[in-house]
Amino acid sequence: MTAHDDNDLWIRRFHPAPEADTRLVCLPHAGGSASFYFPVSRALSPGLEVLAVQYPGRQDRRTERCLDSIAELADAVAAALLPWTDKPLAFFGHSMGATLAFEVALRLEQRGIVASAVFASGRRAPSRDREEWVHLEDDAGLIREIGALGGSEAQVLQDEELLRTVLPAIRADYKAVETYRCQPGPPLSCPIYALVGDSDPKASIDEAQAWKRHTTGEFELRTYPGGHFYLIEQASSVIATIVEKMAETPTARR
């Protein structure tokens, strides 16, 4: 039996569910934190045990160096998840978290640990590049971007002191995702389910459909009403989709 450390800096288990067959690893968006997934964990427990990932540089890790590379983040998250692979892992990532989920799943598959599924939310496929340079904007430009997208971080715009503390993490995340380029290599073999808002300025339906080329397994695209943070208003529908697809998915090969 693998030892689990609930004091691990990277992994937050808000609602332990020892009877669950599968764990769902949830990866936050740029500027996001593990607590974004607390309601998801509560809703899915005890059928699925949620492991929410906490990146350095925010909340209780705010004094740590931010990582501004998807590759570096993926290496660290994959290593942190190894003690949790005594049960099959599925992944849910939103925006930057979707790209990171893909890269972590690739790293684990290279070790012979095949994910049960990857849910890629609010993000274009890794093979679909855009030239984006928000991370090079001044603070005012970065704040405008956060405000335009809405989401859980928009509320910090009203608190100048809090804003100053979170901007370095947001900038590092934007640099990580904007400088990311998918490297040539084999696709995943697990199912990929792409989820996207029908008016998301950061991921068109066509760009989300392109996730299909990144797996040899099942693929499905689901669209929801809304923009980049569609999943906040559509939370119940998204959670129902996760439950539905996980019920259909056989446990991963390990």
Helix-strand layout with pairing:
Layout: E1 11-12, E2 23-27, H1 38-44, E3 49-53, H2 70-81, E4 89-94, H3 96-110, E5 118-121, H4 139-149, H5 160-178, E6 192-197, H6 205-209, E7 219-224, H7 230-233, H8 235-248
Parallel strand pairs: 2-3, 2-4, 4-5, 5-6, 6-7
Antiparallel strand pairs: 1-3
Helix pairs in contact: 2-3
Overview of the molecule:
This protein is an alpha/beta fold. It has a single domain (11-248), classed as Rossmann fold (3-Layer(aba) Sandwich). It is 34% helix and 13% strand. It is built from 8 helices and 7 strands. The protein has helices spanning 38-44, 70-81, 96-110, 139-149, 160-178, 205-209, 230-233, 235-248, and strands at residues 11-12, 23-27, 49-53, 89-94, 118-121, 192-197, 219-224. The protein is globular. The mean pLDDT is 90. One of its GO terms (molecular function) is hydrolase activity.
In short:
InterPro entries: AB_hydrolase_fold, TEII, TesA-like, Thioesterase. The protein is α/β, with parallel strands linked by helices. The protein is 34% helix and 13% strand.
Distinctive features:
Rossmann fold, Thioesterase involved in non-ribosomal peptide biosynthesis, hydrolase activity, 254 residues, single chain, 34% helix, 7-stranded mixed beta sheet, globular, alpha/beta
What is the end-to-end distance?
Answer: 15 Å
Spatial sequence of strands, sheet with the most strands: 1-3-2-4-5-6-7
Instruction: Give the averaged pLDDT, no decimals.
Output: 90
Tell me the structural class.
Answer: alpha/beta
Number of helices: 8
Q: Any idea what the CATH superfamily is called?
A: Alpha/Beta hydrolase fold, catalytic domain
